[in-house]
Write a structure and sequence with these properties.
By secondary structure, this protein is an alpha/beta fold. 25% of the residues lie in helices and 24% in strands. The chain folds into three domains: 2-57, no CATH class; 65-139, no CATH class; 141-199, no CATH class. The protein has eight helices and nine strands. Strands 6-8-9-7 form a four-stranded mixed beta sheet, with no helix packed on it. It has a three-stranded parallel beta sheet with strand order 4-3-5. The protein has a two-stranded parallel sheet with strand order 1-2.
Length: 200
């Protein structure tokens, strides 16, 4: 199968359908061509990971008529302001993709300002009101790198010399960080990795 797929990979949609346990236990996005080392997710036109839903779980399907609209919180982080992707480029497309009937089914809220502190406060308020968000969609930038060992130069190549603030304590080795806005910092960037989300 790989031999016939390989030449057409850039035009191929790859779908991984598994059980719930396997969907999260195996890092499917790291699949590589054993001969060349090429990462499948970077070469395919689309790479989608989902899980097979057994019939016995059908009773848990969300019924908007009974529970209200599906609430989606859009976190659109643009630390570079005018030098970044336009703010409305994502939210506008999501809204245009919904017809009138769908707009009654979905509630789209945009987090303003898109700071990590504001995100935590908004999620807690929604939960306390008994109306938690079903989906949080983060549209922004991220980096995978070593934590800063000093206050300067560690992201110079990646972010043109910016010196963002790290929200959690530095951890050894490279880690992934999302870039949230933080207007209290000179460069308007705050790096957020995994641990702070537990307190969000």
């Amino acid at each position: 199968m790989w031999t016939s797929l390989h030449p057409r990979l850039s035009d191929t949609r790859v779908e991984i359908v598994t059980g719930v346990r396997e969907a999260t236990a195996i890092p499917w996005e790291l699949l590589r061509d054993p001969q060349t080392g090429a990462v499948l997710t970077l070469r395919a036109r689309a790479f989608v990971r989902t899980y097979a839903q057994p019939e016995s779980t059908a009773k848990y399907t969300l019924d908007p008529a009974a529970s209200g609209p599906i609430r989606i919180l859009l976190v659109i982080s643009r630390p570079a302001a005018d030098d970044d992707v336009p703010f409305r480029s994502v939210a506008g497309r999501l809204i245009k993709g919904l017809d009138e009937a769908a707009r009654e089914t979905f509630q789209l809220d945009v987090l303003r300002p898109p700071t990590f502190e504001r995100l935590g406060k908004t999620l807690r308020q929604a939960k306390n009101k008994g109306q938690p968000y079903h989906i949080v969609h983060f549209d922004g930038h991220g980096v995978y790198t070593e934590a800063p060992k000093s206050d300067t130069g560690w992201l110079a190549e990646l972010l043109s010399g910016l010196t963002p603030m790290l929200l959690s304590a530095p951890r050894s080795g490279p880690h992934g960080y999302l870039l949230f806005e933080n207007p209290d910092l000179d460069q308007n960037i705050q790096l957020v990795d995994g641990p702070p989300w537990a307190n969000c």
